[in-house]
Amino acid sequence: MKAAILIQRWYRRYIARLEMRRRYTWNIFQSIEYAGEQEQLQLSSFFSFMLDNFTQLNGSSPCDPMTEEGGVARYELIDVEDSYCGPHLSFPLNVNHTNALLSTYKEQKTLHARYVLQLLHETKKFLEQIPNIIHLSTSYYKEITICGDLHGSLDDLLLIFYKNGLPSANNPYVFNGDFVDRGKKSVEIIIILFAFMLLYPDHMHLNRGNHEDHIMNLRYGFTKEVMQKYKTHGRDILQLLQDVFSLLPVAMVIDSKVLIVHGGISDMTDLNFLESIERHKVKSALRLPRRTMDSVMATRCGSQVKGDLRRRRRGSAQRRNQRKKGSSGSSSSSSSSSSSSSSSSLCSPRISSRNQPRPRLSSSVLSPTLTSYVPCMDSMVSIETQPREEEEWKQVVDLLWSDPKIQDGCTPNTFRGGGCYFGPDVTRTLLERHGLSLLIRSHQCKQEGYELCHNGQVITIFSASNYYEVGSNRGAYVKLGRTSSLDSSSTKVSAAEDSALKALQEKLFAHRTELMTTFQQYDKNNTGAISLSDWAQAVESVLRLDLPWRTLRPRLARLSQDGNVEYLSCFENICPNQPPPLVTPNLAETLYRYRTDLEIIFNIIDKDHSGLISIEEFRHTWKLFSSHLRVAVEDSVIDDLARSIDFNKDGNIDFNEFLEAFRVVHRLDTKDQHQD
Amino acid sequence: MAEDKDFAEAAVSEVHKKISDAFNLFDDESNKTVDVREIGTIIRSLGCFPTEAELHEIITEIEEEELTGFIRFEKFLPVMTKVLMERKFRPIPEELLLQAFEVLDQEKKGYLEPEELKKFMTQEGEPFSHDEMEEMLSAAVDPDKNVVFYKDFVAMMTVRDQ
């Protein structure tokens, strides 16, 4: 009896420890993930600048104007080799085609680029006809299934189809955005989803997510995936996808009761206004809409003029109201926070006020002959449409990026850097105003795959299982009326934990200089050790991840004999593999910290996505980048670095290898090479 | 003397932070409350080995008069600080744990049949729930021999728990 109690006590404590570790692992992943998104958004003005510069430098890309001109679609010019053994598509699609696609992908085969382009082309044509907000009715069906983020996880999509049945007239689906990025099978997922949408246009519905955004794709892997899978036609595919993504509807309403959006809402969200916007102009949340030729076309085109003016007037009236509210100030706290929340929709003032962007030639909707109209339309268009477009853009960004919060009110989403946090009152008000009863959204990974909040008025649904790491979370889908979660293997804490800690150690390393400065401030006597609470405070003040540092300490840093933290030890488990010679520690650290951003920039410069750029371009990028970040790096250091990276001395740098050189490895792996 | 006092204060504030970190991990609503069912996990995750009975005592002490199902941080903090400062519910040393398993292994085989272990754990002491039992067995049973080599099991769990 005593023995039994002892074992039970011990085992229960073990399980409790495990649960705690699971929770902080979760916190680490989430903090780091959101911090990454935030950086991305903070750099958005820089990316816009880069895109403008480099698209100008490189001129129009050769493929675009031809895409739809003269009735000859480019994909028809692509030959399908006899050796190709995948499925052949013909339009309109039938069930045999979707079945063939599914089995092709189950066998790890690919669809020919010709058919990919044709499918995207058909998808674009289809999406152009559908409204911004789709109204569905379930009266014809018993149930409708709603799935959340998939993020390139084909297994989860196939699992959903397996458990819940393929989409069909009797089995309708809504996929709520974030199909791509992060996972390795984003291409497969969008092909399958688009094919089913074309096959069952009334029963398969896709919402846009914040990752259906070509600038996000540069960072989170989809661009790379497309280029790897389609070496010759990858660019054309990406180009077409930019349009397809921006044409995806932004919201669904089921039975006039349930609103489905990817992220959430803000206190400025106006569904009636959203019904009327030109959604395809919002190409990216990281980039304010530019006055594309579309708007010029719209104002010239008779039938659209009226509608456009009417909307514009409404738009400006609305803005006047906002301003009034804002200026009266004291009217109510929620209104003042609202104006900040909508302006929180990222960096708008900075970009819009500065250098009026020129229409981009590479934008595939343009036809080159119209370019000459731009200058004369300029003055008129810029006064009239700019604010309207900004408002449209903000409204869309709020739908795609926002997260719910527990407290009332609406505040800027500082964690992600875009959209807002909306409280239960914001949900209640919007639902009441439109006679709705429920908001279904995705956008956040939940351990069980779903979560209820705001007194049950908001459901979060996330369908990619094991999102952060094997065992980190379940995937789920909602069948309207009841919630069911998918099976997934039982949680394997330690695997997920290791990878979370590794990510955290990378963070520590990337901020080494700042951390050291802070540590040394506490370490007055230069002993190399500081108290646990000083250490925790120092780390938090630099990284700002809001993590339980005391609990994590044993996994990050050693204690000295007198119980203080030997702060140098938190950089020990990590060191750059084969640091290129002549690189100062400082530069290695800077490179390390910004490597994702660097990669995006390289991808922008490296127009053909060959993975090679010239030394000259490398230098140029670094200069732009360091001036933007105000990181001073001497030219000679960059030159040395460039030379040392160019291992085969052919004057080109392979960026993948370059990044590999800085990959973080555990110390054990590098012991041999690294004894200094 | 003053230094001693400072030292004591620093120690208390360190303990407070530790408790608050652990509490916050379970405070899903960020409103300084946790589900009462998580209290045991929090206390144990802070390195304590209470029995279920001792745990129940603590909960009774910190529960609201009107049972809400939630525990407030203000109530939890002083009680937990006391527990940690007085070093109650100390860890069970590995040797003692092994002895406990040996007591159950009456024939001194060096292992337990899954059914044996299950009988002890679900019928004696403070019985395991079905879920707890299944979880323990899934980790404890050697997949080849289908028995519990408790010595290995204890060693494995102690290492992983470090």
What labels describe this entry?
heterodimer, A: 676 residues, 6-stranded mixed sheet, 21 strands, 50% helix, B: 162 residues, 61% helix, elongated
- Strand order of the biggest β-sheet of chain A: 1-5-6-10-12-11
Q: Biggest interface: chains and residue counts?
A: A-B, 34 and 47 residues
What characterizes the major β-sheet of chain B? 2 strands, antiparallel
N-to-C order of helices and strands of chain B = HEHHEHHHHH
- Let me know the average pLDDT of chain B: 86
Which assembly state applies to the chains in this document? heterodimer
* Percent helix range of chain B: 55-70%
Task: Please give a structural write-up.
Chain A: GO terms for molecular function: calcium ion binding; iron ion binding; manganese ion binding; protein serine/threonine phosphatase activity. Chain A: Its EC number is 3.1.3.16. Chain A: This is Serine/threonine-protein phosphatase with EF-hands. Chain A has 676 residues and is of the alpha/beta class. In chain A, 50% of the residues lie in helices and 10% in strands. Chain A is built from 26 helices and 21 strands. Chain A is globular and about 75 Å long. The C terminus of chain A is likely disordered. Chain B is mainly alpha-helical and 162 residues long. Chain B has eight helices and two strands, in the order H-E-H-H-E-H-H-H-H-H. Chain B has a two-stranded antiparallel ribbon. Chain B starts with a helix and ends with a helix. Chains A and B meet through helix 1, helix 19 and helix 20 of A and helix 1, helix 2, helix 5 and helix 7 of B.
How do the helices and strands line up, and which of them pair or pack?
The complex is a heterodimer of chains A (676) and B (162).
Chain A: H1 2-42, H2 44-58, H3 95-106, H4 113-129, E1 133-136, E2 145-147, H5 154-164, E3 173-175, H6 186-199, E4 204-206, H7 214-220, H8 222-229, H9 234-247, E5 251-254, E6 258-260, H10 271-276, H11 293-300, H12 302-328, H13 333-343, H14 348-353, H15 374-401, E7 403-404, E8 410-412, E9 420-422, H16 424-433, E10 438-441, E11 450-453, E12 458-461, E13 476-479, E14 482-485, H17 493-510, H18 512-522, E15 529-530, H19 532-543, H20 549-556, E16 558-559, E17 565-566, E18 574-576, H21 585-593, H22 595-605, E19 612-614, H23 615-629, H24 635-645, E20 652-654, H25 655-660, E21 664-666, H26 667-670
Parallel strand pairs in A: 1-5, 2-3, 3-4, 6-10, 7-9, 10-12
Antiparallel strand pairs in A: 2-13, 5-6, 8-9, 11-12, 13-14, 15-17, 16-17, 18-21, 19-20
Helix pairs in contact in A: 1-17, 3-6, 4-6, 4-9, 8-9, 11-15, 12-15, 18-19, 22-23, 23-24
Chain B: H1 2-26, E1 33-35, H2 39-45, H3 52-62, E2 70-72, H4 73-85, H5 94-104, H6 114-123, H7 130-140, H8 150-160
Antiparallel strand pairs in B: 1-2
Helix pairs in contact in B: 1-4, 5-8
GO molecular function, one term (chain B): calcium ion binding
Protein name (chain B): EF-hand domain-containing protein
Organism (chain B): Anguilla anguilla
